[in-house]
Amino acid sequence: MTEFERLSAIEEIKQLKARYFRCMDTKDWAGMVDVYAPDAEADFRAESPDGFVKGAAQIVAYTRGSIATVTTVHHGHMPEITVLSADEAVGVWAMEDLLYWPEGEGITRADGTRISRLHGFGHYHETYRVHGGRWRIQTLRLTRLRVEVG
Amino acid sequence: MTEFERLSAIEEIKQLKARYFRCMDTKDWAGMVDVYAPDAEADFRAESPDGFVKGAAQIVAYTRGSIATVTTVHHGHMPEITVLSADEAVGVWAMEDLLYWPEGEGITRADGTRISRLHGFGHYHETYRVHGGRWRIQTLRLTRLRVEVG
Amino acid sequence: MTEFERLSAIEEIKQLKARYFRCMDTKDWAGMVDVYAPDAEADFRAESPDGFVKGAAQIVAYTRGSIATVTTVHHGHMPEITVLSADEAVGVWAMEDLLYWPEGEGITRADGTRISRLHGFGHYHETYRVHGGRWRIQTLRLTRLRVEVG
Lengths: 150, 150, 150
Fold this sequence. Notes:
homotrimer, 150 residues, alpha+beta, Nuclear Transport Factor 2, Chain: A, 6-stranded mixed β-sheet, 3 helices
């Protein structure tokens, strides 16, 4: 691929990840399915032991089950995207997320603490593939620098 | 337009929005006027019922009246910019803002609460036009995911 | 240089700064040396009176001495990168940082207050040069909009 095609792919992948965040925070689940490859794999085990999910529809169902009633803010920063070929790329993103559970809801963590608010920081480690003529997330793994809860 | 001109326009629009944020937070009001088209429209009604303003100078006067004495931090994230033609584009940005009013100042909200600190999250929905050979913000509308006050 | 080379340089500089942040927060000190030109200068005097440091290795030693045991989150936003020639560029980045000192550690500030947590906002003002075929940070200066401590 040409250097120009490489730059164009990087911009497309940035907009792909932007849709990922916007669909998550506006609860646009149909839009969310579309950011993943059909056979995508998401690894959220930094969050929860059962957080390894396969398949675009399954990943979105998992996400929806976790945050459908939660006000969420997810932001990505500082992408390092490497295009490997015309249909393969890898990337790292810094991230920050805020979750506000509704009154009376919340989650119980492994250590027994009950939380209704979470503010976290970490990185997404991702791979991308072209499916159906568009870049999509093929694999996603979240690592954490810090999580604050309340 | 060519794919190359499209990428170039996207980068210029990103830098335009970067100037918007930098001028706001460093109180560079002259620089701020320059980011808007002369007949721009800004819709901040998610913030305040009177927040619909027309005209670059009027928008900056409105902003200045709201935050001239306030320490502000505004960050934009994850742009989705679509170039429609050589002089028209649309975009969505995730955003986060922090406002710290000086001691003794602050604002009274519609529900009567007095606040001296605000931490908000949302999206800018924007259109861009080329005026005088440069991309500028033609319309801007802010929507909110969450606002925390103190 | 061509407009295309300019866009390509901007993307490379964005990924350079992304490595800067990722290496800092994951404590990858070898990677961190590599983001600076050998004769780079960093001006952190907004943080500390002794914060003017020359030389890539010295800057990283200074940073390491400041935060090796501290959980840190640094994010950059909204770059305004201007490429001046094939090997010179300037840029401004908005930034946000969080520092969490371990239990029992922390720092004493000039005014005598003891802090174990810092949340700051500001801008990086930078220049870049090509050294050894890659863009690197030549000079870096941090200015602050606001610092919250706890």
